[in-house]
UniProtKB/TrEMBL annotation:
This is Unannotated protein. PANTHER family: NADPH DEHYDROGENASE C23G7.10C-RELATED. InterPro entries: Aldolase_TIM (IPR013785), OxRdtase_FMN_N (IPR001155), YqjM-like (IPR044152). The keyword Protease does not apply. Pfam families: Oxidored_FMN. Its cofactor is FMN.
Length: 366
């Protein structure tokens, strides 16, 4: 069996394969509640054998969201709505995690298709917040968080993890990438604080460590905790991949089991060398240096290349975003494309019974 289709065990969780759905905001919720859109969107991937699904970034509080249309996980009503989706995903044999989010400096905007403009409190929005008063692009200067406010946000993360557990999620992931709150504490580009949360590496990483510890107080030892990092800011003097590897190593004893290695997003006007698999070297370096498992993400579209990434040990899994929007059958097709290494009878593993009539018939040479 190709490594892409081999199961992966983390703590007590067994994930059926290494094809994972990358988190993607849908901007389709009201009051943070996931609805039929989120059910249909996520269910399609469980039916089509994506082994692990990460939900879209979900607010740990109403003001932790980026838009008013983002999902949340700060209430029991939201947990209940999520549980319907979680149960269905489990019924198909896939596993599912929720990405816990505080949007920080990028909070209170409209959706991308509405221009991502600032929504002021007078229009139902809120003042954005960050470690320091550093504005992101055209957005207004955020409020610099007081120590008491930082403490309250850490408590919000813990409460969100409690709700995630009651919804039945297998994994929680801290969103520590793309210029949102956790990332803006890590990066010297946005963190100008002179107290215990700013300055040295130790101080800039204090917030994410306290968040991980708070989540682990309520998140069971049987369940994995992931962290999505912008592994590198692509800016001289910014957060670099070496920092990510060091952080991964220091977070392991605090209960963080896997680094999902994205990059960038801390400020505008940065040039990224975007191309197929351009972030894979980050997943590889973090994995090699820290010994912590990783997921690779970013412009991964080819089944053979994805299989090579996990077979060579550059990452433990691949996360696909836009390719799965274009092609929800990616995992089913990958099983066929990699046919030369899967015995014909095992191909049925990848196809749900209800869809078997649509599966291309095994050829004599398979
Ligand atoms: C519509 C859309 C929404 C996204 N929302 C999130 C999100 O909620 N959380 C996150 O960490 N990344 C988010 N991303 C980034 C993706 O998870 C992924 O890292 C990125 O698209 C690169 O992977 P790809 O080339 O396979 O799409 C989003 C991307 C897209 C296209």
């Amino acid at each position: 069996m190709p490594h892409l289709f081999s199961p992966m065990k983390i703590r007590e969780l067994s994930i059926p394969n290494r094809i994972w759905l990358s988190p993607m905001c849908m901007y389709s919720a009201v009051d943070g509640m996931p609805n039929d859109w989120h059910f249909a969107h996520l269910a399609q991937y469980a039916i089509r054998r994506v082994g692990f699904l990460m939900t879209e970034a979900s607010g740990i509080s109403p003001t932790g969201r980026s838009t008013l249309m983002d999902t949340g996980i700060w209430s029991s009503d939201q947990a209940k709505a999520w549980s319907r989706i979680v149960d269905f995903v489990h019924s198909q044999g896939s596993k599912i995690g929720i990405q816990l989010w505080h949007a920080g400096q990028k909070g209170s905007t409209t959706s991308p298709w509405q221009g991502q403009d600032y929504v002021p409190p007078s229009a139902g929005g809120w003042q954005s917040m960050a470690p320091s008063e550093v504005a992101f692009g055209k957005l207004p200067t955020p409020h610099a968080l007081e120590l008491e406010e930082i403490k309250a946000i850490i408590t919000d993360y813990r409460n969100a993890a409690t709700h995630a557990l009651s919804a039945g999620f297998d994994v929680v992931e801290i969103h520590g990438a793309h210029g949102y709150l956790v990332h803006s504490f890590l990066s010297p580009v946005t963190n100008r604080r002179s107290d215990q949360y700013g300055g040295s590496f130790e101080n800039r990483t204090r917030f994410v460590k306290e968040v991980a510890v708070a989540i682990r107080e309520v998140w069971p030892a049987s369940h994995p905790l992931f962290l999505r990092l912008s592994a590198d800011d692509w800016i001289e003097g910014g957060w670099r991949v070496g920092d990510s590897a060091r952080l991964a190593n220091e977070l392991l004893p605090l209960g963080v089991d896997l680094i999902d290695a994205s990059s960038g997003g801390i400020k505008t006007d940065v040039t990224y060398p975007i191309g197929p698999g351009y972030q894979v070297p980050f997943a590889r370096e973090i994995r090699e240096v820290s010994g912590v498992p990783t997921a690779a993400v970013g412009l991964l579209t080819d089944a053979k290349i994805a299989n090579e990434i996990v077979t060579r040990g550059e990452a433990d899994a691949v996360m696909l975003g836009r390719e799965l929007l274009r092609n929800p059958n990616w995992a089913l097709n990958a099983a066929i494309e990699l046919k030369d290494v899967i015995p014909a009878d095992e191909l049925t593993i990848a196809w749900p019974n209800q869809y078997l009539n649509g599966r291309p018939k095994p050829k004599p040479d398979w």
